[in-house]
Structures are given as structure tokens and as C-alpha cells.
Amino acid sequence: MATLQVPVRGKAGGAPTTKAVILVGGPSRGTRFRPLSLDLPKPLFEVAGHPIISHCFAAITRVPEIREVFIVGYYDESVFRDFIKDCSRSHPQISVRYLREYQALGTAGGLYHFRDAILKGRPDRFFVLNADVCCSFPLDQMLRLFEEKDAEAVILGTRVPNDAASNFGCIVSDAHSKRVLHYVEKPESHISNLINCGVYLFSTEAIFPSIKSAIKRRTDRPRLVSYPSSDALDSYLPAGDDDGEKNEVIRIEQDILSDLADSRQFYVLETKDFWRQIKTAGSAVPANALYLMKAFQTQSEELAKPSANILPPVFIHPTAQVDPTAKLGPNVSIGPRAVIGAGVRIKEAIVLEDAEIRHDACVLYAIIGWSSRIGAWARVEGTPTPVREHSTSVVKNGVKVQSITILGKECAVGDEVRVQNCVCLPYKELKRDVQNEVIM
Amino acid sequence: MKALILVGGFGTRLRPLTLTLPKPLVEFGNRPMILHQIEALANAGVKDIVLAVNYRPEMMTAALKKYEQEYGVNIEYSVETEPLGTAGPLKLAERILGKDDTPMFVLNSDVICDYPFKELAEFHKAHGNEGTIVVTKVEEPSKYGVVVHKPDHPSRIDRFVEKPVEFVGNRINAGLYILNPSILKRIELRPTSIEQETFPAMVKDGQLHSFDLEGFWMDVGQPKDFLSGTCLYLSSLTKKGSKLLTPATESFVNGGNVMIDPSAKIGQNCKIGPNVTIGPNVVVGDGVRLQRCVLLAGSKIKEHAWIKSTIVGWNSTVGRWARLENVSVLGDDVTIGDEIYCNGASVLPHKSIKANVETPAIIM
Q1: pLDDT at A13
Q2: CA separation for the pair B18, B60 (Å, rounded)
Q3: Would an 8 Å CB–CB cutoff place A379 in contact with chain B?
């Protein structure tokens, strides 16, 4: 593997070409997004009126030079068919393809497996976006830094509170040059509060050799020697399904970034804008809030017009029926054909397709599943957590519970019933007050 | 006839309400608690009523003045300089209670029931002994002092058994008595208990009888029982077809037992009842759901609030989509913010609640 110090933009006088990859993972990995992922693959779950993945796609479409987008994951082929059709219709100039891994190869392994498709037409560089990230995706700024520094890789980073940092990949960078000096995934001790946002821009000539050498390292030697964190090791070991598969799993975060920091022109773009992961189902509520706020700041036409009973930002699907006496917002999304009765209050919540909220009910910090029904004067409530907070659980009476109340598909809450800090699996009927429970 | 009402202290068990008003003046069924007793006594022909209190009774004197005329009674205040228990106050008021030979009623001020004073007086006269105590049947006598009768007599009391472990009977002292003035000789002017000392002595002499109470009975000295007592009182009014209740034909009345002061305003699309009292000048907004609750004078319930098993204090405000339950008690001039949830919150006067109270707590 030869190190390439040659600036990538130099190719044959033409403008450099850029592609994009969205990593969507697969169904077996969606467990943390239960109970919502029981009925819909996480990337297709709608926040702020659009599937999670389409927020990534929208960011990509804002980089005019990108003409080719790959969705990489191990969901069934059919899962993204409609989404891709919609993308082609709205952006005919962009080719969108789904590349299915037949076994989990890891984020880097997947890229390597599909290198021929990605490298076709000899692109100079490509973005990699994790679909479970909610942020403003400042891809143009990453591109600018990439060119300015003649970089081989750019990572998007954000600052988090010190005590939260070790839950993420931590980046040590040179404050002046922005060069990444060191990278550790989920360190045991405090290393930095600048963390990996899960959005990258790689030069094709740098990343594939790096992955290749990681694969080689893996087969040559006991794996993960470069890894200082025993905690990360522990948590990693049981994750593999069997020995055969484990060997092939190569992840960007665990297996590639640390090496890039050592040997490549690797830079970090620190975003001051919002960022958070969409891991648990509850994190869809803050993600919804962040995307809605962004839409509001950019004066999106999609949002409901503010009024005495609409506290912005609020998204109401055109087919939803909302009684004028209902008070909605801030940070509320109402899905298609949902029916919101008189005197209803909804705040910091997502109401999904075909759900019905009867009169005088109150829904706060909650997700109301598809076709669920909430009775009159019922109260479905979670616990407010600061939007900068990255955890979606709270401790109540010494027990860790979900801060967001989530009702799965076709659940029913009786008249006047109160549901607080609960997760309710699909097709359940709640006739009595419940709190701090998972309802099977 | 004469009566003594044992008022005692300010009523700390009924705080935070009694931080604002002495307990006898707290409205039960939209009238001061003590008025229920004064009215029943007046109807039974009582002319002289002594209120035994151990605090300065100015507030009460002022509040009750007008009722003296209305009911044709003379109310005197017997102020204990130190707490004298339940018997001591009788001795202190000996001058009035002992002025003639007619028997006197003695009442605990916390007791709410259909006061049977006329029948009680007749029964007392008929047996001719020194005293009669009203007894009521309870489901769990083990929590109270139980009255046991002489085997050969239906009403003469044989003994009292305090918190019986084994079943000895289910009739308990209801806190209402009729006594001849002669018993004043049995009491010394010191802190002493009528239940523990005076009555056992009378029982020993075969001088004490019991009288069975018909209908409901409740000691409403604390919020939980105040609410239960309100339910019993309203049910009894319903049974009697009382005009004090709001007719069930009103569209917002649900399940009956609803008492609304004529000056209160009720919004549209409300669902109220069962067991709700709404005091004077209360404003209830649209789409409000009320059940098993007491809204005291001047309180305001904003739109879409949901209230159950709660006492809303005078001039308090409950926000839109707020939810109060599980014996929440709001003192005077409390504000509950919009969308707030209160589970068993006991809120002191003039407080503003801006965050959920999720487990029962006292908000200072």
C-alpha cells in the first residue's frame, strides 16, 4: 500500500467527482429502535414529516456535483424500493441504488465489498453518511475543508459535555490545523469532547487501501491490537454472531479511523450546529424537534402556519384532520390521515399515520404509533430532557425508564387514562393508568 | 337545650387548607363545616352552643355572627389556654352547660353525618340514665374503639375495647353524645379524655347507653376523608332528592352527586361528576373533566384540565390540560401551570407549580 500524497483534485484537468453512500444497517440491528422498528425499518421512520433517510438524501442533493448515491445495508431489497423511486422522481439527475450486503460486513467491510460499484467512473472522493444521524449535514463545508487541506479524509465532529464523550468516538485534533491526531472509539477515560458525528468524506485513493490493510491485519494477527480500550473490546466481542462472520466485520469507527489519524491527511470539521444520534425509538422525538427547528429557521413552506393554537414548529400532513381548538407545538409532527379532536394538546411529540387523538386528551413527549387511538381526557406523557442531552432514559424511583412514552402500532389508551414513561408494544390496549413500564 | 362542639386546635391534619381558615370554617358541601352541626342542633331545639377552641377565635366569631340570628342560637366561645383534651372543655364551660338540668349535646367538630339529634334526645330521655353515645357500624372495627353491650340489654354499654384484635362487635363511637349535666361532676378541670376516663366511669355505673346512627358517617378531619365524606354527603342528598344538587338533566353532569353554587360558571363540553362540589364564583373552562373533587370559592379551572380526588383551594388556578389526582390539595391562591401533572401534591398557599409532582409530596 503506497501512501498517496498527491492532491486528488489534479486528475486529468477535470473537476473532481464526488459520490455519496448512506449506511442504513439492517433489520437485526434495529432492536434499539423497538417497538417502532417492529413495524417499519428505522431509516424509513418519519421525523419532521420525512423518513430519517430522506433527511440524509436531502443534504446530499444540496451538493450539486453528486450524481450518484448508494444506500448500503442488509435490509431486504424491497425495503427501499419506494423511497428510491421517490428520490428518482424528485431528483432525476441523481442515480440512487441500493446495495445489499447479504451478511453484516461492518461499515467499512460493506464499502469495500461494493468498491467496484463505488469506484465506477473513477470518482475522486465520496461522502459516507450514517443514516441514524440527525444533523444539518454541512457537506459543503466538509468539501471545502477537504480541498483547502488537500485532505484524504474529513470527519464531521461535534462537542459534547465531557461526561458524555466516552459514549462516542473521540477525536483529538490540532486546534489550529484541524488535523486529526488521534481517534479512539468509546474510550474508557476522557480523551476529548470532540466526537465523531458519523459523517465522513473520503478520498477513494486513501480509504480503500486503508480498509484493505485493516482486513489484512485482521487475518494476519489477532484482531484489534491497535485498540487500547478493554471496554470497547469487551463490548465488541460478544457482538459478533459467530467466528466466521466476526472475522469479516470491519468497521469504519473501530478499525479504520485510528489508522487514518496515524498515517493520512485526516481532518475534522467541527460543526456548531445540532447533532444527535437516532438510536433508540425515544430519540426520534428530539430528532423530530431538531429537524423541525431547522425547517422553521429556513422558513420551510411545509410547516403549519403559527397561530394562537399552533406553537411553531409544527408539521401537519395535508391529509391529517386537526380540530381548530386543538393546541399543537412546539416540535410536533402529525402524520397522514391522523385525526386530532377538539381541545387536544400535543407538545414535543410525533403522531403517526391514521392515529386518532380524542377530545381534551394531552400528549407530551411521546410517540403515538400508527393507527393508535387515544381516549378523551387521556394523558400520554414522557419526561422532558434537554435537547442537548444524548440519553433517552431517565431514572425514576431508582429505576431507569424511557424518558419518551412510545406507543407501538394500533395501541389504544382508554378515556381519562394516564400513561407515563412507558413503552407499549403494538396492538395493546391500556385501560388503566400505567407508569415506568414496558408493556409487552 | 345546650350543646358543646369540640373544635380544638386549628386542624393541622387538614392543612394546607387550615393554614388559611380554621377547620370549622372550611366549606364542606359548600358551607362551613361547623354550620352543618349548628343547623342540625338548632333544628333539634338547641339554643345555646359552646364552641370549645384552643386558639383565639376572632376569625370564627366574625364568621359565625350572622348565623346566630339566622338559626336563632346563641354561640359562646370557650377558649382553652392549654389543651384540655376531650373532657376538660366540658368542665371549663360548666357555667353554661350546667345552668339547668336539660341534657347537653357534645359533638366532635370533625364528624359529618345525618345528625339525629331529635331522636337522640328522645332516646336519651326514655332510658333515663346519664349519657348516650351515638355509635356507627364500620367494616373494620379493628382500627377503632369498639362498643360492647351488656348481654341482657340492647343499649346499655358494658365496655369499650380499643382496637380489638378479635371481633367483639362492629359499633364504634361516632363522636356525638348527649349527656346530663350531672356528669360534669365526674370531670376535673385538667387535660382529660372523655373517651378514656369519663365514659369508662359512667359504664361502670351502668349510666351509658348507645344509639345506632342511621346512614353515613365520616370523620372528615383529613383531606382523604374530607373527599370520602363529601361523596357520602352528596349521595345522601341525592337519596333525599335535595334541591341543593345540580339536576342530572344538565348536559355536563355525569353520574350525579354534583353540587354547584349558582354563582359558578361552567364552560362548554365539560363532564362533571360524580361527587363534585363547586363553590361560589368558581370558573370552570371548556372541556374540563371533574370527578370526586371539591373546588372551593373563587377557584379557576382552565380549559381541558382533568381533576380527580382533589381539593382545589380558594382562589387557586389550575392550568390548561393540567391533571390533578390522588388526594392533591391546593391551599389558598395556588397556581398550577398549564399541562402540569400532580399526583398527591399538597401545595401550601400562594405557591406556583411549574413542574410535575409525580409522587405524593408537600410543596412548601
Answers
A1: 54
A2: 13
A3: yes
Collapsed DSSP state (helix, strand, coil) of residue B96: helix
ipTM over 0.95: no
Q: β-strand A314-316 against A332-334: which pairing, if any?
A: parallel
CB-CB contact of A331 with A313 (8 Å): yes
The whole-angstrom separation of Cα B345 and Cα B295 is 15
**φ and ψ of B277, to 5 deg:** -120, 135
Q: Distance between CA atoms of B299 and B313, rounded to whole angstroms?
A: 7
User: Beta strand A399-402 with A418-420: parallel, antiparallel or unpaired?
Assistant: unpaired
In a 3-state reduction of DSSP, which class is residue A11?
helix
What is the spatial distance between Cα A344 and Cα B304, in angstroms, rounded to a whole number? 8
Question: Which residues of chain A does B339 touch, with a Cβ-Cβ cutoff of 8 Å?
Answer: 345, 347, 362, 364
Map grid coordinates 491527511 to a residue.
A265
Closest CA to B229 of B62, B57, B60, B113: B113
pLDDT over 70 (residue B208): yes
Quote the mean pLDDT of chain B.
90
Residue A114 CA to residue B244 CA, distance in Å, equals 82
Of A325, A347, A416, which is closest to B289 when you measure between CB atoms? A416
Q: Say if A343 is an interface residue toward chain B (CB within 8 Å).
A: yes
Phi-psi region of B339 (alpha: psi -120 to 50; beta: other; left: phi over 0): left
**What percent of chain A clears pLDDT 90, i.e. is strictly above it?**
67
H or E element, residue B322 = none
Confidence band for A221, pLDDT divided at 50, 70 and 90: low
Residue with cell string 359533638: B107
Count of beta carbons in the 10 Å neighbourhood of residue A167: 14
Residue B349 φ/ψ, nearest 5 degrees: -55, 150
Residue A397: pLDDT over 80 = no
Which positions ≥6 away from A330 have C-beta within 8 Å?
A: A289, A292, A311, A312, A313, A314, A347, A348
d(CA B328, CA B293): 10
Contact predicate A271/A150, CB 8 Å: no
What is the pLDDT at residue A238? 40
Handedness of CA A319, A320, A325, A329 (dihedral sign): negative
- Residue A393's pLDDT band, with cuts at 50, 70 and 90, is confident
Instruction: Answer whether A359 sits within 8 Å of B320, measured CB to CB.
Output: no
Residue that has been written with the C-alpha cell 393508535 in this structure: A372
pLDDT of residue B228: 95
- pLDDT tops 60 at residue A116: yes
Contacts of B269 in chain A (CB under 8 A): 342-343, 359-360
User: Could you tell me if A183 and A170 are in contact, meaning their C-beta atoms sit under 8 angstroms apart?
Assistant: yes
- Torsion over CA: B240, B243, B249, B255 (sign): negative
| Contact between chains at A343 and B341 (C-beta distance less than 8 A) | no
Query: Helix, strand, or coil here: B224?
Result: helix
- Strands B145-149, B157-162: parallel, antiparallel or unpaired by DSSP? antiparallel
Confidence of residue B147 (pLDDT cuts 50, 70, 90): confident
- Alpha carbons within 13 angstroms on the beta-carbon side of residue A181 total 10
Return the pLDDT at A81.
95
Cα dihedral A149, A153, A156, A158 in deg (nearest 10): -80
